[in-house]
């Protein structure tokens, strides 16, 4: 049996490509926006609109959310893609509608640490993006915790509001996402780890 040559030098990351147009059909799955069942006593609606740099709704984005349970602990109930109609999964994915609007049924998470504020991790996939975007949504009704959250405090005060989900009349939270331009949402960049 001939020897298989081993690769020389470091392994390189595969170059990324522009997202879509397939993602709006391939990524969503049944029950994706149902992080918690609507009848859950702590269920809230987490929703908003994805806007482009001109302020127009993006009709073909996909939004994902992750968050802790009400006590701030990671959720591991039956896997994130499996929906049983009873548990809170802590993960959801949905496509926006033609008006760029998305909505999840979920619960408000607790704070993971005493010095942190409750928040939802949000990922956006949209046309023209080379990489999906990461951000966080904090809650407007958590002023004291928001004031002492180390990450939120590290964001320029003039842009901090782009990370705040506002309480609405339905008892839910509205978190609009602006991909660029005036009021652009603060997005996070994660550095790769050398292997």
TrEMBL record:
Pfam family, one: Dioxygenase_C
Keyword Oxidoreductase: yes
GO molecular function: ferric iron binding; protocatechuate 3,4-dioxygenase activity
Domain of life of the organism encoding this protein: Bacteria
InterPro entries in the record: Intradiol_dOase_C, Intradiol_dOase_core, Intradiol_RC_Dioxygenase, Protocat_dOase_a
Keywords: Dioxygenase, Oxidoreductase
Keyword Membrane (UniProt): no
Domain Intradiol ring-cleavage dioxygenases stretches: 45-181
UniProt similarity note: Belongs to the intradiol ring-cleavage dioxygenase family.
Protein name in UniProt: Protocatechuate 3,4-dioxygenase alpha subunit
């Amino acid at each position: 049996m001939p020897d298989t040559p081993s690769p020389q030098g470091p392994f390189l990351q595969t170059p990324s490509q522009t997202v879509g147009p397939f993602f709006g059909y391939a990524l969503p799955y049944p029950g994706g926006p149902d992080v918690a069942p609507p009848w859950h006593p702590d269920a809230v609606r987490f929703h908003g609109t994805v806007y482009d740099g001109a302020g127009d709704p993006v009709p073909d984005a996909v939004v994902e959310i992750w968050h802790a349970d009400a006590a701030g602990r990671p959720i591991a109930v039956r896997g994130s893609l499996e929906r049983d109609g009873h548990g809170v999964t802590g993960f959801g994915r949905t496509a926006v509608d033609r008006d760029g609007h998305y909505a999840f049924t979920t619960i408000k998470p607790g704070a993971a640490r005493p010095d942190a504020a409750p928040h939802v991790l949000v990922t956006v996939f949209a046309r023209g993006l080379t990489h999906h975007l990461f951000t966080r949504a904090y809650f407007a009704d958590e002023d004291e915790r928001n004031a002492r959250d180390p990450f939120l405090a590290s964001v320029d005060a003039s842009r901090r509001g782009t990370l705040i989900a506002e309480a609405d009349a339905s008892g839910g939270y509205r978190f609009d996402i602006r991909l660029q331009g005036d009021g652009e949402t603060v997005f996070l960049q994660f550095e790769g780890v050398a292997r």
